[in-house]
Amino acid sequence: MEAVGLGLLAGILFGLLTVLVRRGIMRVPDPVAGSVVVIGLALAVVLAATVATGQAGELADGRVAIAYLLIGLVAPGLSQIVFMLAVRDAGASRVAIMIGTAPLLATVIAVGFRDEPLKAGLVAGTALIVVGGASLAWERTLPEGFRMRGLVLGFACALLFATRDNAMRIAGLETDMDARAATAWTLLGALIAVGGFAAVTRRGALPGTLRLVFRPYLPAGIVFGLAYTTLTIALAVGKVTVFAPLNAMQSLWTVLLAWILIGRAGDAIGPRVIGAMALVVAGGVMIGIFR
Q1: What pLDDT, on the 0 to 100 scale, is given for residue 44?
Q2: What pLDDT digit, counting tens, does each position of 128-156 carry?
Q3: Are 70 and 254 within 8 A, CB to CB?
Q4: Cβ neighbour number for residue 146 with a 10 Å cutoff
Q5: Are 286 and 51 in contact (CB under 8 A)?
Q6: How many angstroms separate the CA atoms of 7 and 262, rounded?
Q7: Across the chain, what does the average pLDDT equal?
Q8: Contacts of 60 (CB under 8 A, 6+ apart)
Q9: Structural domain of residue 244, as residue ranges?
């Protein structure tokens, strides 16, 4: 039951994160600098929680730390930049729906490479997810500035997240590092990745840009820290095939929160988006039930 509760909470937090990123981009459309701020703030939140709960000593396990740091370079390092670009080009709701395919991808990876059991519900869940995601390709009501590449980038994020979930699960099974300390090392790896990319592409202009984007992306950074800590703890106490479908509910939460915080018109939430969201969420839940 603990893994179930954490999976649901992670889905809500990541759904809120997507909406807050969208709001930040609407104010200052700079996904690269925004990624640095979001991950930097998330790292600060997690480090504060690690110290406050008396787990600071866990940070000193160098061998384990390297494993989490390397995971962080890819996701949420590389994936965060891709995610921010996807939200900029396709909007919060549509990107969340594409990321909702992650349970399918995570399950395929878990079955193929980690020998987790395969059952018939995967086929039905796969069909629902594929139909839901594909339906967005023929949508006519689109948000301002929409670009189809945003959906492609959203799917790329789903693949990176699915790989991350399995890598985090493996690391959690083989180590006793506290989840907060593990999250801190993962986010440090992510910060190295996005900070390095931003420094190379922006050169001397980065410090001034970070000051400009700090406030618009502040809420997203705080929520990201909370969400990633929840994710790490969930993967340490439960199977990917239990956690991933519950976390996929973030598609539902994103659409609902986008409707509330951005507005139906602002994110162009129409019947097709709601239908696609329902199919993807149902597919993820079905995979979880039958697995």
Answers
A1: 95
A2: 777 776 677 666 677 777 888 998 998 89
A3: no
A4: 16
A5: no
A6: 25
A7: 81
A8: none
A9: 2-290
Q: Measured on CA atoms in the order 56, 61, 66, 71, is the torsion positive or negative?
A: negative
Residue type (1 letter), 251: S
Number of domains observed in the structure of the chain: 1
- In angstroms, the CA 213 to CA 217 distance is 6
CA dihedral sign, ordered 26, 28, 31, 37: negative
Counting Cβ atoms within 10 Å, is residue 214 exposed (0-12), middle (13-18) or buried (19+)? middle
Whether the bond into 103 is cis, omega within 30 of 0: no
Residue appearing with tokens 């929840």: 230
Q: Minimal CA–CA distance to 190: which of 36, 12, 2, 6?
A: 36
Tokens (6 digits) for 196: 């390095």
End-to-end CA distance of the chain: 16
The residues, any chain, with a CB within 8 Å of residue 245's CB and separated by 6 or more, are: 7, 103, 284, 285, 286, 287, 288, 289, 291
Q: Is the pLDDT of residue 221 over 90?
A: yes
User: What is the pLDDT averaged over residues 211-240?
Assistant: 84
pTM of the predicted protein model: 0.80
CA nearest neighbour of 30 among 190, 194, 153: 194
